[in-house]
Amino acid sequence: MTFHVLTLFPEMIREFATHSILGRAAKAGLVEVKPLNIRDFAINKHGQVDDAPYGGGAGMVMMAQPIFDAFSSLSTTQNTPVIYLSPQGHVLTQARAQQLSQEKEIILICGHYEGLDERIIEEIVTEEISIGDYVLTGGEPAACVLIDAVSRLIPGVLGKEESHQNESFSQSNLLEHPHYTRPPIFRGREVPEILLSGHHGNIEKWRQEEAIRRTKSKRPDLLKI
Ligand code: ADE
C-alpha cells in the first residue's frame, strides 16, 4: 500500500512514518509513505505556492497549479482515492479506515493557511476527510492520523502481540475491556481476581461485560448507532 502525501512539509510526514510499527511495516515492504513537496512544483522563481484570496479578507489561499502539477506527476490509476484532509470532511471512522486499507494507493493532500483554491478540490479531490471537529494549523497531523489508522489494518502490519482481537471498534461498537499486567497490587489497587483465576470462560465473560459497562459509561453515543 502506498500513501502519496502532497504537502509543504514533507519532513513532518517522513519523520512520522519511520518510527515504531509504521517504520517496521515500511522496512517489511508492507506500507510505503511517499511525501511530495508541493513547493517543488511552484512555477515562479520564489517558489510561491499561495496567494491572497480573491474578494479580499485575511489569510492566504494555496494555489491550484502547484498542487495540480504535483498530482499529475504521480502515475497512479484513475480510481485512486484523492483525499483532502480538511475540517469540512466527514469525520474519519474505523469503518472508513477499514475500507481504505483495501486500496493499493491513496493520495493525501495537506492544506495550510485558509485552505486550497476551490477549483483544485473540484478538479482532483474525490473525498474530504476530517479527523475531528476542531481546526489544526495544517493537514499534516491529520494525514499522519489517517496513515496510522489505515496502515495498522493492512494484513501483516501488526504483529501477533498487537493483534486486532477485541480492540475497540473492531467487531462491534464496543470499547475494549480494561487491561492489567504485573504486579498484582499497585499502590493498593488489586488486579480483578477473576483475571488470576485461570478460568478462560469466566474471564471472557467478564471482559465482555466490562466492554459493555465501559461503553455505557464512557461513550454511550456508540451504543446508539
Ligand atoms: N486540517 C485542519 N483541521 C483539520 C481537521 N480537523 N481534520 C483534517 N484536516 C484538518
Structural description of this entry:
With 225 residues, this protein is an alpha/beta fold. 33% of the residues lie in helices and 18% in strands. Strand 5 (82-91), helix 4 and strand 6 (105-110) form a beta-alpha-beta unit. The radius of gyration is 22 Å and the shape is elongated. The model has no long low-confidence stretch (mean pLDDT 95). Bound molecules: adenine (ADE).
Topology summary:
Layout: E1 2-7, H1 10-17, H2 20-27, E2 32-37, E3 50-51, E4 61-62, H3 64-72, E5 82-91, H4 94-100, E6 105-110, H5 118-124, E7 127-130, H6 140-151, E8 185-186, E9 189-190, H7 200-218, H8 220-223
Parallel strand pairs: 1-2, 1-6, 5-6, 5-7
Antiparallel strand pairs: 3-4, 8-9
Bound molecules: adenine.
Brief rundown of the structure:
This protein is an alpha/beta fold and 225 residues long. It is built from 8 helices and 9 strands. Strand 8 (185-186) and strand 9 (189-190) form a beta hairpin.
Question: Can you give keywords for this protein?
Answer:
single chain; 225 residues; alpha/beta; 5-stranded parallel beta sheet; 8 helices; 9 strands; elongated; binds adenine
